[in-house]
Amino acid sequence: MANFSKSNVPQFSVEVYQNAFLPEGGREVNAIVTVTSTGGGTTGGIPLAGSGPAYGAGPGAAVVLMVDCSGSMDYPPTKMRNARDATAAAIDTLREGTLFAVLAGTHVAQEVYPGGGRLAVADAHTKALAKDALRGLSAGGGTAIGTWLRLADRLLGPADAGIRHGVLLTDGRNEHEAPEDLRAALESCAGRFTCDARGVGTDWEVKEVTGIASALLGTADIVADPSGLADDFTRMMENVMGKEVADVALRLWTPVGVEIRFVKQVAPSVADLTGRRTEAGPRAGDYPTGSWGDESRDYHVCVRVPQAGIGQEMLAARVSLILPDPSGAGTPQTLSQGLVRAVWTDDMAASTSINPQVAHYTGQAELAQVIQQGLEARKSGDFDGATAKLGRAVQLASASGNQDTARLLSKVVDVVDAATGTVRLKAKVAEADEMTLETRSTKTVRVKK
């Protein structure tokens, strides 16, 4: 088995970007918190205490691959073959010592490899056996994704691994279980493992797939052409294999009288974490961030402070990165911290200046929202509303330099003037283009330097 020592654990740093100055009577404080992890033997200069899976002892990761084998995967027949090839590519990408299993998902969930309620240890022999078992996959039956997730949870739960992760592929709607069954499964699995979700083709429901990824702190994407699955699965698994620390939480402590308005991840994609808070002592709450490798993410923290007079200053919030003790018995470790401040001033220039990072990500969050609103309006026949919303999206994407989103928008609207957001709806839009725009609407770009 692969053994990952404390020296493999990344260093974490926290940087806070804000305009701390408020006018008289001002109460809303906004800050962008940039969290960066880089490979190293210490965390913020502090060696990690303890041992166990969360700190890198034992195998690095446990992964369950969930492959849709419902009847629709036979249309066209190449789709099932592409799914088998993609799963084989993901298996090839597994690091030696990784624990893994493959499931076939229909209206029930079945173990394909290794079976017996176990996970296999990745090496040349087990990888070959797993790929051989994929040849037995065939399409037939319905779709009940909650059942797949619950079986993945049963397999991953006992695993002695720091990173527990699922990969879910579907080509259709979750038609063979009630929506509340899927919601219950997601609630049960949240915090127990992370999951990337992929929709192949164009017959699946975007909100279902993105909802799964959001609930389980993973990524969601569309692979409109099944021939692209193998490349996508390889990239996805390479990303999973790069993760080194699981279950990192963003802890927000606020003084008496301070109200948290929201906490959102804003890069590399928009995800509202506000409702996912768990209490962590007096006036403190933890917001889940999932697993980390070498990467950087941005979070938007907005708090409401009590009124104060000119010249007064206060700590509006303390932001900490927390790594739990893997046993659940010890004291969680603080990896890094940053402070959000509030200073009241009568200097109008200081108090009305908007921090560039805050302004940028406020625009990126609006961009995701107006894309989704515009596509909903288009589907419902409100073409004037769709034109207005998607025009605003074009304007925001252009101003922020979000070229990927701008390109996706150009497949849905004809852009007359990007700067003013003047657009015309295209008369005909390929379903794959519309679904790609909706699926990737929450992807953001970092603030331009």
Summarize the structure.
By secondary structure, this protein is an alpha+beta fold. It contains 11 helices and 20 strands.
Keywords:
11 helices; single chain; 449 residues; alpha+beta; 6-stranded mixed β-sheet; 7-stranded mixed β-sheet; 30% helix
How many helices? The count is 11
Main β sheet profile: 7 strands, mixed
General form: globular
Number of strands: 20
Bin the helical content.
Answer: 25-40%
Q: State the distance separating the first and last CA atoms.
A: 44 Å
- Overall pLDDT: 92
Q: What radius of gyration results from the CA coordinates?
A: 23 Å
Extract low-pLDDT stretches. Answer: 1-7, 40-58
Assign the structural class, choosing from mainly alpha, mainly beta, alpha/beta, alpha+beta, or little secondary structure: alpha+beta
Report strand %: 25-35%
Detailed description of the structure:
It is a single chain. The chain is an alpha+beta fold and 449 residues long. The protein contains eleven helices and 20 strands. The N terminus is likely disordered.
Mind sketching the topology for me?
Blueprint: E1 11-18, E2 21-22, E3 28-38, E4 61-68, H1 78-93, E5 99-105, E6 109-113, E7 120-121, H2 124-134, H3 145-156, E8 163-170, H4 179-189, E9 194-200, H5 206-215, E10 220-223, H6 229-241, E11 245-253, E12 259-267, E13 271-272, E14 278-279, E15 284-292, E16 295-304, E17 313-323, E18 333-344, H7 348-352, H8 356-379, H9 383-400, H10 403-409, E19 413-417, E20 422-425, H11 431-439
Parallel strand pairs: 2-18, 4-5, 4-8, 8-9, 9-10
Antiparallel strand pairs: 1-3, 3-16, 5-6, 5-7, 11-15, 11-17, 12-13, 12-16, 14-15, 17-18, 19-20
Helix pairs in contact: 1-2, 1-6, 3-4, 8-9, 9-10
